[in-house]
Amino acid sequence: MKRLVVLGAGESGAGAALLGKAKGFEVFVSDKSEIKPIYKNVLLNNAIEWESGQHTEALILNADLVVKSPGIPDTVPLVKALNAKGVEVISEIEFAARYTKANLVAITGSNGKTTTASLTYHILKQELQVGLSGNIGNSFAQQVLEQDFPNYVLEVSSFQLDGTLGFKPHIAVLTNITPDHLDRYNYQFEKYIASKFSITKNQSEDDYFIYDADDPVIEANLKNFSIKARLLPFSLTKTVENGAYYKDKHIIITIDNNKITMPTTNLTLEGNHNIKNAMAASTVAQLLRIRKQTIRESLENFQGVEHRLEHVLKINKVNYINDSKATNVNATYYALESMDAPTVWIVGGQDKGNNYEELFPFVNEKVKAIICLGVDNEKLMDTFSSMVDIIIETQFMSEAVKIAYKIAKAGDNVLLSPACASFDLFENYEDRGRQFKEAVRKL
Questions:
Q1: Of 363, 383, 361, nearest in space to 374 by CA
Q2: Which residue among 98, 172, 248, 371 sits deepest, i.e. has the most Cβ atoms within 10 Å of its Cβ?
Q3: pLDDT tens-digit profile of 319-348?
Q4: Which pLDDT belongs to residue 196?
Q5: What percentage of the chain carries pLDDT values higher than 90?
Q6: pLDDT tens for residues 169-220?
């Protein structure tokens, strides 16, 4: 019996353990942190061996195969020791994909991947049996085990892609590439770029690669990777022969001389970046032969993603907007770009080597006050204090919201768009977003 060791017992780890057991592996799960009760119960109920709060090398290095949580860097000594022994270390995405013949749509990018994946799923589920997984929803491995849908939409991070060997989506989508997570790539942008492009590495001529043709990093690197898949670019500015483009408030999609045109005037999602997300999702839907009417209706009734430019409440004619999912500068760029009123901006957290320069025009034009919410706000204070009249530091969400309430006037926006990771003060970006919403409701 082959031994499968799963490192990390979160959503993906627990799912991989269940699938591994069902496929006849002897399974052992090891998590350096305390395993959450919900996942501990899954392991106990399925008689899967586990350890919590430590990694016992003797029980791990004898593995035939290791499924590693995306949160564990490849550089930790344990992973290096496994590599040195020649043990295959893969991600849950790779593991689950080996046990399904489903049609896979995989979506990656520095920003927009959650919205694009959710929107794609929202359209496809109207006419197809489809699962939503990867970095979102229930674990891919568990869905393969329990539902095995004929189609999956997978939101895939660079860390998940780093653990893939044979992963081959029929349709791959790359929304954009901006510097992010560089701390995991030795601060070498080209390594991060290669990680994103690896989504297409196993694709063949029968597969499709949908990408943002307006993204300078993608355009500059297309020729550096041997891409066999058929290219379907989307663009806001150029006319595209095969793919999607935007003209006169319409999205025009052409695939093999088959053309569909859709108005964007009734899109529920605002901002140029969401027109791009809609173009990517509609192109996938068109490839999978979803009816044009269904695509159009789905675009118009899609409610968006929690923690992504989510309108929370209007209090005294002030709009409170939760964009906690903006964990990098580029995401915040889109948020500030879409603000159409003077904005009190709550920013800060764990900085991943951020360069805030691209935000300067918006800060000068739209931001009336900045509230820095982080353990270390020095860089933000140095960068922005000369641009706004009011800049304040705090380490409590409730206080940040109360300060914003005092500063904002009727017609203003209060925007939480941190441009940073959340781990200095919060469990994750969801926790940060929920605390913001709670504090707003308590005003």
A1: 383
A2: 172
A3: 999 999 999 898 899 899 989 999 999 999
A4: 95
A5: 84
A6: 999 999 999 887 777 787 888 899 999 999 999 999 999 999 999 999 999 9
Q: Would you state the structure tokens that stand for residue 395, as one six-digit string?
A: 């380490």
Same domain, 272 and 316: no
Do 284 and 321 lie in a common domain?
no
Residue with tokens 């999912």: 325
- Per-residue burial over 169-203, b if 16 or more Cβ lie within 10 Å, else e, is bbbbbbbbbbbbbbebbeeeeeebbbbbbbbbbbb
Residue 268 CB neighbour total at 10 angstroms: 13
Distance from C-alpha of 117 to C-alpha of 272, rounded to nearest angstrom: 17
One domain for residues 223 and 104: yes
CATH number at residue 21: 3.40.50.720
* Residues 148, 256 within the same domain: yes
Q: 356 and 246 in one domain?
A: no
User: Which residue ranges are tagged as binding site?
Assistant: 109-115
Report the pLDDT value the prediction gives residue 332, as an integer from 0 to 100: 94
Q: Among residues 330, 324, 336, which one has the least CA distance to residue 436?
A: 324
Q: Are 373 and 433 in contact, with CB atoms under 8 Å apart? A: no
271 and 420 within one domain: no
The length of the chain in residues reads 443
Do 422 and 349 touch, CB atoms closer than 8 A?
A: yes
Question: Which of 256, 282, 301 marks a domain boundary?
Answer: 301
Q: Whole-model pTM? A: 0.84
Question: Is the pLDDT at 265 greater than 80, yes or no?
Answer: yes
Q: Read off the amino acid at residue 380.
A: L
Q: Which ranges of 302-396 would DSSP assign to H, the alpha helix?
A: 329-337, 360-366, 378-384
Domain identity same for 225 and 139: yes
For the chain, what is the domain count? 3
262: domain CATH number is: 3.40.1190.10
Q: CA-to-CA distance for 319 and 314, rounded, in angstroms? A: 5
Residues 288 and 366 in one domain: no
Query: Residues 111-140: pLDDT tens digits?
Result: 888 999 999 999 999 999 999 999 888 999
Last-in-domain residue among 42, 70, 90: 90
Only one residue has tokens 């989508």, namely 173
Mean pLDDT of the region 251-279: 89
* Residues annotated in a binding site for ATP: 109-115
State pLDDT tens for residues 32-49.
999 999 999 999 999 999
